[in-house]
Amino acid sequence: MAILTLTRAFTKLQEQTTIHVILPNEIPSDHKLQVLWLLHGLGDNGSGFIRKTNLEVLIKYTQLAVITPEMNRSFYMNLYKGLPYWDYLTQEVMPEMRKLLPLSSDPADNFVGGTSMGGFGALKLAFNHPGWFSTVMPMSPVVDLTELPAMMPDAQEILDGIVPEHYLETLAERASPKALRRLRYFYCIGDQDPLKATNDQFIQYMQNDLKLKIEYHTGEGGHDWLYWQRMLPEMLTWLLKVNLSDGYPLGNQ
C-alpha cells in the first residue's frame, strides 16, 4: 500500500490543510480506482484511521483508495463563525482529488463512511447528494444536533444560536426517495454508546418512514476506537464482498 499526506492551499478555506490518502501498490492502467471517502470524528483528524486502526492492512488485497480529509471541528458544516468546510469538502476536496489521483467518479465506485461526527457527515453527504455514491456507512453517528451543545463548548461557532431539530430528517425528506432507496447502507453502533438511543430512533425513521433497507449492526461496544477498529473488517468485507486476507471474492474459496 501507499500512504500519502497531501498538504496544499485550498481556496475555500484560504489556508493550507491536509488530506490523507491510502492507495493500492498496483494502480490499474485500464480503469480508475474505487473510492472510500472516510470522514473523521470530533476531536480527531484525518490521520486517525491510519494511526488508530489497521485500515492499511485490511485493504491490502483490494483496489480501493481511501481519502480522509481534515475537517477540524466543523461537523461538516459551513461554520456560522468560521470557515466554509462543507463547501470545501463538496466543491474542492472531491473534484480536486479526482484531478490529482486516478479515482473513479462513477457513483457505483464511490462510498462514504465515517465515525461519530464523521458518521453524521456521511449521512449528510448521502442525503444531499445520493447520486454521488452507491453506499453509505455511518459508524456511531451523531444524528441529533440538539445534543451538540453538550458535546462541544464551541458549538456556537457552527450554529447561529438556533439548534436545528430533525436536521438529517429534513435533508432526507428533500431528497429523491428513489435515489435514497438505491443506496446500500451499513450502519453500526455499540450497545454501550451514549448515542445508541437516538440512533435506534433514527434507524426506525429510516426504515419505517423512508422505507430504506438498512444493514444495522449493534452489539458490545462503546463510542471509541476499540469498537470502530473491531467493526472495520466487517464493514469492508460487506462493502467489497471479498476475503480481506487474500482479495478473492467471497464464496469462491
Tell me what you see in this structure.
- There is one protein chain.
- The chain is α/β, with parallel strands linked by helices.
- The protein has one domain: Alpha/Beta hydrolase fold, catalytic domain (Rossmann fold, 3-Layer(aba) Sandwich).
- Helix content is 34%, strand content 21%.
- It contains 9 helices and 8 strands.
- It has an 8-stranded mixed β-sheet with strand order 1-2-4-3-5-6-7-8, sandwiched between helices.
- A hairpin with a 4-residue loop joins strand 1 and strand 2.
- The longest helix has 16 residues.
- The radius of gyration is 17 Å and the shape is globular.
- The chain starts with a strand and ends in a 13-residue tail after the last helix.
In percent, how much strand structure appears in the residues? 15-25%
Q: Mind telling me the CATH class?
A: Alpha Beta
Q: Which structural class is indicated by helix and strand composition?
A: alpha/beta
Poorly predicted runs of 5 or more residues? none
Shape: globular
- Span of the ends, CA to CA: 24 Å
Helicity, in percent?
A: 25-40%
- Per CATH, what is the topology? Rossmann fold
- How would you name the CATH homologous superfamily? Alpha/Beta hydrolase fold, catalytic domain
* Rounded average pLDDT: 94
- Helix count from the secondary structure assignment: 9
Annotated CATH architecture = 3-Layer(aba) Sandwich
Spatial order of strands in the largest sheet = 1-2-4-3-5-6-7-8
- Series of H and E elements: EEEHHEHEHEHHHEHEH
Overall tally of domains:
1
Give the beta-strand count: 8
InterPro entries: AB_hydrolase_fold, Esterase-like, Mycobacterial_A85_antigen
Pfam family, one: Esterase
Protein name: Acetyl esterase
GO molecular function, one term: acyltransferase activity, transferring groups other than amino-acyl groups
